[in-house]
Structures are given as C-alpha cells and as structure tokens.
Amino acid sequence: MTERSVAQACRAVLTAAAPGDKVKAARAAARDWRLGRLAFTFDVAMPDRPARPNKPELLPPNRMPKRGKGSEHGRIALIHAITHIEFSAIDLAFDAVGRFGGEFPRGFTDDWMRVGGDEAMHFALLDRRLKSLGSHYGAMPAHDGLWDAAAETAHDALARLAVVPMVLEARGLDVTPAMIERFSSIDDGVTRRILTRILNDEIRHVSAGTVWFESACREKGFAPETTWQALVTRHYRGLIKAPFNDSARSSAGLSRDYYQALAVE
Questions:
Q1: Last residue of some domain: 125, 143, 161?
Q2: Domain co-membership, 216 together with 111
Q3: pTM
Q4: What is the spatial distance between Cα 201 and Cα 222, in angstroms, rounded to a whole number?
Q5: If you write DSSP's letter for every residue of 48-96 in order, what string do you get?
Q6: Same domain, yes or no, for 217 and 100?
Q7: DSSP 35-48
C-alpha cells in the first residue's frame, strides 16, 4: 500500500466541510504524523478556499450583529464567535503545512501539525460547550476575516507567518485574559477553563510562528523586526491595537521591537 503523504492528509482536512468531519480529519492527520505514518512529501496542492458547512452564514465583519453584553444571548454569541475562530484556525494550521512545509526543515511540519491538532481540540471543547448551553456551532452568523488573511498570504511563507501567528494569534493573547475575567465574573467556570487552556496553547502557537519567521529571516539575511513590519504593513488590513499582553507575547518570543512601531492606541 502506498504511504499517504503529509500534504494529502492536510488537503483532507481542508476539503472536509462538516465540522465533525474536519475535526476527525485534523485529529487523524496530527496523530498519523506524530506516529510516523505520513511521508514527508508535498505532492498535492492545497485548495484556494477550505470547504465550509452551510451554516454559519459568513458575513463581512461590518455586517455582523452586535453581541448584547451581560445577557445570556450575549454570552452564547461570544462563545460562538470564539468557536468560529478555532474552526478557521484548524484550516490555517494544516494549510500552512500543506502549502509551505516543503520550504522548511521537518520541524516546521512537526510544529504546525501539533498546532492543527490543538485547534481541533479547542473547537471540539467549545462546540460541546455551546451544545450544553442549548445552542450549536452555526446557530449564528460569523465572519471570514481569518481566511481573508490566509488568501492574502498564500504566495509567501514569511508573510503568512508574519500575519497569522504573529498578528492574529498574538491578538488572541491580548484579548483572551479579559474574556476569562468576564466568564469568571458570571461564574461560568467551564468556559473559563476552556479559554485558559486555549490561552496557554496559543502562547506556544505564537512562539512557533516567531521561531520559524526568525529562522527564515536569518537564512535570507533579513532583519526580522523590520521585515515583519514591512510584511504586516503590506498584507494586513487591520490595525495593530494596543493595549498588548506584553508578558504573554514576550513568553512567545514576540518582543515589543516587532509591534511597537506599528501600534495604535
């Protein structure tokens, strides 16, 4: 029997539309890679867009309904929004391997296959939490901003690392502590524990992005901080917003030398 390639395993994740199927494919890919069952070859292309379920309806960010703060609906809407981010993050991790893994040493694939497995686990935990609150993933609209960032950086591994782990995931380090505090204040210990787990894992994900970005810059003779600033200015449409969780960013190796020059209050 011909051994399946790591690229084929990644493509299987990206082409699975149903959430359950995507999680299953992600877990299988991460496990098979860890156990040495996948060939380190990149023999198939990644799709331009990942398969998506019919729900949630995907809207531009400016058309998203406002989440009512303090209400039960607002709590579920916030959990739903985080669940959608984690669902998109599954595809981002496996796309990074399938699209760019051949440009890096094997350790890059080790790291991003593990990240993909983490994101699938995060999604599954949040999906279960929504169901326990009488809702489900897809019950509300969501926006596709994360995949827009992937499409914008599909041609350039350095740009992808600069924008996805080092901007978008780093933003998660900034905002998640306040969300943990919010769920603590309403005695939702289950969601608080899930978000604490996610925050700790995301530090490792931002670290992987920073390590591989710096490694690629060294190889090309680029200065990491100014290269990052140029790539983010070119490929990221949002703002680098203060305040920052400097301690979590620093734990991930992402120093203020990167983002301070682009920060807006």
A1: 143
A2: no
A3: 0.94
A4: 29
A5: SS----S-SPEE-GGGSPPPPTTSHHHHHHHHHHHHHHHHHHHHHHHHH
A6: no
A7: TT-SBS---SPPPS
